[in-house]
Amino acid sequence: MQGYVQVYTGDGKGKTTAAIGLAIRAVGAGKRVWLLQFMKSKAYSEHRILPQISPLLRTETLGKPYFIAPEGALTQEQMAALGEVVVFPPGNPPAEYVADCRRGIRYATEEIATGKYDVVILDELNVALYFGLVTREDMEALLAARPSHTELVITGRKAPEWLLERADLVTEMVACKHYFDRGVANRRGIED
User: Fold this and answer.
1) DSSP string spanning the chain?
2) For 120-152, how does the pLDDT look when each residue is reduced to its tens digit (9 = 90+)?
3) Cα 191 vs. chain centroid, distance in angstroms?
């Protein structure tokens, strides 16, 4: 079966949720799935259940127990909803986050190249690209390593235009209305 590159991006909610839904569907069809989450720790509700679903589904995270964002990228309301946020000067992200993400992209490239997965989901990788935690060159190497049978799903806001052009399927989640704008924090089991 031919695999394709999918990108889920945009400011609307649902990118990770859609990718997890695809993972469940793929496992249900007997496919081997790897979900690698950049910039997330195992603090989300899906981490309690996904490892128990099937030996065909592998999940890993590459994050800290806090979020990072460049100065001016988030409103006070957004930062309050996210919990702990480390703000950094544009172009100067925390070195430990950069090191983790660079190790992660190399690791992902090596794992994808093995061809042992039918579906690979790289959650929040678009944000890591946008924040400068991984480079376009890193991403180009990963895309080049993808076997033709592997479906690759890349999620996160701010997907770069060059990646949208390279993708076979692009879904943009549009934020039409969200209770975050009224100061509602993340709700367990819905947003985290």
Assistant:
1) ----EEEEESSSS-HHHHHHHHHHHHHHTT--EEEEEET--TTSTHHHHHHHH-TTEEEEEE--SSEEEETTSS-HHHHHHH-SEEEE-TT---HHHHHHHHHHHHHHHHHHHTT--SEEEEETHHHHHHTTSS-HHHHHHHHHH--TT-EEEEE-SS--HHHHHH-SEEEE---S--GGGGTPPP-TTTT-
2) 999 999 999 998 999 999 999 999 999 999 999
3) 14
- What is the value of pTM for the model shown? 0.89
Report the alpha-carbon distance of residue 124 to residue 133 in Å, rounded.
11
The tens digit of pLDDT for each residue in 1-29 reads 899 999 999 999 899 999 999 999 999 99
